[in-house]
Design a protein that fits this description.
The chain is α/β, with parallel strands linked by helices. It has a single domain, classed as TIM Barrel (Alpha-Beta Barrel), CATH 3.20.20. It contains eleven helices and ten strands. It is globular and about 50 Å long. It binds zinc ion (ZN). Zinc ion (ZN) is lined by residues 6, 8, 33, 93, 202.
């Protein structure tokens, strides 16, 4: 069974079509990852409606530019995440962004918000799915203060020394459909130990007019298998086992 460990399912106009298309190619689970604070309830509603959808909430680092009043409002959203933690499978998408958030004056706010969510993950024994774009080193430094059951770096595109540190710490890497065109994603898929690989779509992230979807996980695993010279069947067993270790609540919903 394939699991899409990172999809912004609430962003699609018709999630039912997206879920059906995913099921048709063997995707048995989708982690619906919160991105915009205003859509937290939609993530929870989708998970309540569809058994194969599993909710994760977190304040995305880019909310400091996308949601202008976040500096005032973030404590309310933190409370919402905390209240809902028993029904979540992860705290996500969280992290730091020094790439799309170009104004460094906003980076301390990003960090304050991030540091509110890591203790929620720790206390509830929840994994995190991390956005680390151009802030990889800072994120890795901050993580050392927390005992998290699993850390997933989503769509990694950072420097190789940081990649090695993350591998040594046993972090997981979720590989997106960008494996089709991104040399750094291809390198990550090529070099990460098989036991630290996961699948993701990051849908509806779009490339060359093609909207990413959970069904792309089938393409991703086929491409990883080809590059690693393992059978797709064998790789599917390994990645499902990795997913069970990383996101156990996907397999035993509360
Ligand atoms: Zn994402």
């Amino acid at each position: 069974m394939l699991i899409d460990t990172h999809c912004h399912l609430d962003e699609y106009e018709n999630p039912l079509d997206i879920i059906s298309a995913a099921e048709a190619v063997g995707v048995g689970g989708i982690i619906a990852v919160g991105m915009h604070v205003t859509k937290f309830q939609k993530v929870l509603d989708l998970a309540a409606q569809f058994p194969m959808v599993h909710p994760a909430l977190g304040i995305h680092p880019e909310e400091v530019k996308d949601h202008p009043s976040i500096d005032q409002e973030f404590p309310l959203y933190i409370d919402l995440i905390r209240e809902n933690a028993p029904k979540l499978v992860a705290i996500a998408e969280i992290g730091l962004d020094h790439h799309f958030v170009k104004n460094p004056a906003l980076w301390s706010l990003e960090e304050r918000i991030f540091l509110e969510m890591l203790p929620i993950a720790e206390q509830n024994k929840l994994p995190v799915s991390l956005h680390v774009k151009d802030a990889e080193m800072r994120v890795l430094d901050l993580l050392t203060s927390y005992e998290l059951p699993a850390v997933v770096i989503h769509w990694f595109s950072g420097p190789s020394d940081i990649y090695k540190t993350a591998i040594d710490r046993g972090y997981y890497f979720s590989i997106p459909q960008a494996i089709r065109y991104s040399p750094i994603v291809q390198k990550t898929a090529q070099e990460t130990p098989l036991e630290q690989l996961l699948l993701e779509s990051d849908g509806p992230a779009t490339f060359k007019g093609i909207v990413g979807e959970p069904k792309d996980c089938a393409l991703v695993i086929t491409e990883i298998a080809r590059r690693r010279n393992v059978s797709r069947e064998e790789l599917e067993v390994i990645i499902e086992s990795n997913t069970r270790k990383t996101f156990p609540r996907v397999f035993s919903p509360s």
